[in-house]
Design a protein that fits this description.
The protein is mainly β. It has 4 domains: about 250 residues; about 80 residues; about 170 residues, no CATH class; about 50 residues, no CATH class. Helices cover about 10% and strands about 30% of the residues. The strands form 7 sheets. A 14-stranded parallel sheet has the order 1-2-5-24-27-30-34-37-40-43-46-49-52-55, sandwiched between helices. A 14-stranded parallel sheet has the order 3-6-25-28-31-35-38-41-44-47-50-53-56-57. Strand 58 and strand 59 form a beta hairpin. The longest helix has 19 residues.
């Protein structure tokens, strides 16, 4: 317990520091010395022209604020709009690119397709348009009807299998490239390079888009142009073949013909069929020095983007050098985002909308500090909503101190289904607060860094075997190679956690007052809030999670260390898992409502060395499993001083008795109670304690009404939804009565713009 107590003290200090840290104010942005007006028919008609006008003012000596006021209209970009060091605002000043009062200008990376003619396909219902420019880098993978992502043509399901051992986890490179297939769907064609296989190689927590290099129809063999993330096995579909255009709303692109084919849902194509021309709309880029000294780091400073809409970027195409990275592709420094900061400081994105795009919303790559993304909406995009991506392990910790506040993030990961709403990778001391993240194919919020298995080359250099060998790709190709600065790493003991901690840059983050729900709707093995391979001092407090189809709502995973999960509200999931605590972490003061039913796997995983104390497990319906805590057999005194309640008192008493009996250490739940916590009024969101509550005897701190009122976005707080139908959080829907037994997740074909799997 000595280590645990020390960890709590450290976390408390960090928590106090965060509590005192204010949200960035607007004082520097109140007045402007100069104003530039942009309008489609004005003297300054484009954003590049506006940027150049600002440059001219700065070069002439303007040191005050500059306002670029953008009128209503659509501003199409033919190339990425880049802001460099010459665009930095002087110290104490900002340059604002903002919407005019009452306006909602759209910045688009798309081209409108207008030259439509009827084809002979499907009785003349399929239309076509010449797009001779759509080759090479201009080839596009997405198509939009205004604000709607259209579905690429898909074949029937194709069963594929690599010649490899069934239980092989990662797969040799050849098993991720070469495979056999069934049926007659795959066959050689003139535009084979245009086609992609879409599916889930071996694992259910990711999808891949895989180009095809060759097909042998006689022997039913094929080879990919880029390796799959894992061994090729499972059910796939072929995308973008004109022959598979068999449903209204589908399209296909043949670059050999320079022809786009589209079957409208009714009549002729509208006047807003848009093909994306860019992966990245705006890039703010300074000088990023990858060396350990970092002496040449020079960030762009003082840019503000406010009240703007961004849409119509393409998604990433995977190249042969991108070996096996599609699962964790956001770890890489990629040109893939509607706005991308790559070497920036003291910049702001405020009240913007990011939608209808195949790429990420906002990326903060490499050197990014004190950047604020707030009050913005992220919806219907192919990748991650907001990404903070720091350098890989090394001595330089440069992506930190950013604020992600008061944003709405929904239906992201529409193409790369495994993309989270907010992804913090190798980035520390950030504040992730008051965001509403929901309707996700996978996970809501991820805080992650490098795992110990990534250090395999260092182990070999030390002449020591890798204790995490089963997780290593044999040829060393996947996400970790380009993210680690190997010459900056020194290890003396591969089992000693402190030896790794300096390289775990995802440390000291504060995740608070977020509302996260309806995640993991299409994939497997995810969570509402997920911590993995973290450094010390991450705090997850005062968040609310609910309606999560399966998996734990909050999870600290492999190589996660020193995290504190405190004062959260967790309402029951369909698989009824509450929290998973791996590694030496703390979970205290949380309220779990219906987090475990009789049929489902144990809902609350306890690491033997972790602290899972002073939590309330509150059941108003259903039965409770005898194995409520998974791993309780060997857990020590870290599981104690908890309160268990069920509307049928004997159920909670029986649960507590059986847990104590199963525990071999005789330490678990010694002081815990089976009793009513006596909430002030849980049905109205008040989880404070009445006088005489047994929770007070256990020295519990209440998740009081003033805390619940702060959850969710400031413009749409969680409490307003809670009180609108207060009973929904205390009911088990009838369809959940059988738990997970007999239910299988559907996987495969995407419908409705990539929002469903149906193979």
């Amino acid at each position: 317990m000595h280590v645990i107590k020390r960890k709590i003290r450290i976390s408390s200090i960090l928590l106090l520091a965060f509590a005192c840290a204010p949200i960035p104010d607007l004082k520097a942005e109140t007045t402007s010395a100069q104003t530039i007006t942009v309008s489609p028919d004005g003297k300054v008609a484009t954003l590049p022209a506006a940027r150049d006008a600002v440059r001219a003012l700065r070069a002439a000596g303007e040191k005050g604020n500059i306002d670029v006021v953008i009128q209503d209209g659509v501003y199409r970009l033919d190339s990425t709009l880049v802001f460099g060091l010459e665009d930095s605002a002087p110290k104490g000043a900002v340059t604002r690119y903002r919407a005019a009062e009452g306006a909602s200008p759209l910045i688009s990376g798309g081209r409108v397709i207008t030259n439509w003619e009827k084809s002979d396909l499907q009785g003349g219902k399929v239309w076509r348009a010449k797009v001779p420019w759509a080759k090479g880098d201009a080839f596009f993978h997405c198509l939009y009807d205004g604000s709607k992502l259209l579905q690429r043509a898909q074949s029937e399901g194709i069963r594929v299998e690599a010649d490899s051992p069934e239980k092989e986890y990662a797969g040799e490179l050849k098993h991720r490239l070469d495979f056999s297939f069934t049926g007659e769907v795959l066959k050689p064609c003139k535009n084979l390079e245009d086609l992609e296989l879409y599916g889930q190689p071996t694992r259910a927590w990711l999808v891949n888009f895989l180009g095809i290099a060759s097909v042998d129809s006689t022997n039913k063999r094929a080879r990919l142009a880029v390796p799959a993330t894992y061994r090729m096995s499972g059910l796939f579909v072929l995308e973008n073949r004109v022959d598979d255009l068999d449903k209204p709303g589908e399209w296909a692109l043949n670059s050999q013909e320079g022809m786009l084919y589209y079957w409208p849902k009714s009549g002729a194509p509208g006047d807003q069929i848009i093909a994306p021309a860019l992966n990245e709309l705006i890039r703010v880029e300074g000088v990023n020095d990858a060396s350990v000294a970092g002496e040449k780091d020079q960030p762009v400073e003082g840019l503000v983007f406010s009240g703007l809409r961004f849409a119509h970027a393409d998604r990433q195409k995977w190249l042969p050098q991108d070996q096996g990275i599609q699962h964790d592709w956001n770890m890489w420094d990629k040109a893939n985002g509607l706005i991308r900061f790559r070497g920036a400081r003291h910049c702001t994105v405020r009240n913007c909308t990011f939608s209808d795009s195949g790429s990420d919303g906002v990326r903060l790559d490499l050197f990014c500090q004190e950047i604020t993304v707030e009050g913005s909406t992220f919806r219907d995009i192919g990748g991650t909503g907001i990404l903070l991506c720091g350098y890989g392990p090394g001595k330089k910790d440069v992506n930190k101190g950013n604020t992600i506040h008061n944003n709405e993030i929904t239906r992201v990961g529409q193409l790369f289904l495994h993309s989270p709403g907010i992804f913090v990778w190798q980035s520390g001391h950030n504040r992730i607060s008051n965001n509403h993240v929901y309707d996700q194919a996978y996970t809501g919020i991820v805080i992650a860094g490098v795992r110990r298995r990534f250090f395999d080359p260092i182990f070999k250099k030390m002449g020591k075997p890798n204790p995490y060998k089963k997780w290593i790709f044999p040829e060393g190709t996947r996400e970790h190679i380009p993210t680690i600065r190997w010459d900056e790493i020194t290890l003396t003991d591969i089992e000693d956690w402190p030896a790794y901690e300096p390289y775990m840059h995802a440390r000291g983050n504060l995740i608070e007052f977020n509302e996260v729900h309806d995640c993991l709707k299409l994939l497997h093995d995810g969570n509402c809030i997920y911590l993995s391979a973290n450094g010390d001092g991450n705090i997850v407090r005062h968040n609310v999670t609910y309606t999560h189809p399966e998996g734990a709502m909050i999870r600290t995973d492999d190589d996660s260390h020193g995290a504190t999960v405190q004062g959260n509200l967790l309402f029951g999931t369909k698989s009824n898992q509450g929290i998973t605590i791996k590694g030496l972490n703390t979970a205290t003061g949380n309220v779990f409502v219906n987090s475990q039913l009789l049929t489902g796997r144990a809902g609350n995983t306890v690491d033997p060395k972790s602290d899972l104390s002073r939590n309330i497990f509150y059941f108003v319906s259903g039965s409770v499993s005898d194995g409520f805590h998974y791993g309780v057999d060997t857990v020590g005194a870290g599981l104690d001083y908890n309160l268990y309640y069920h509307k049928a008192p004997r159920v909670a008493e029986s649960l507590l008795k059986k847990q104590r009996a199963r525990n071999t250490t005789k330490l678990a739940d010694r002081h815990s109670l089976a009793a009513d916590p006596m909430f002030v009024d849980a049905t109205q969101g008040n989880f404070g304690f009445k006088k005489g509550s047994p929770a007070l005897k256990l020295d519990m701190k209440p998740v009081a009404l003033n805390i619940v009122a702060k959850m969710g976005t400031l413009r749409d707080p969680f409490l307003a939804r809670f009180t609108a139908d207060s009973t929904e959080f205390f009911k088990r829907p009838p369809e959940e009565a059988d738990g997970r037994k007999g239910r299988k997740k559907k996987r495969g074909k995407r419908k409705k713009g990539g929002n469903e799997l149906n193979l």
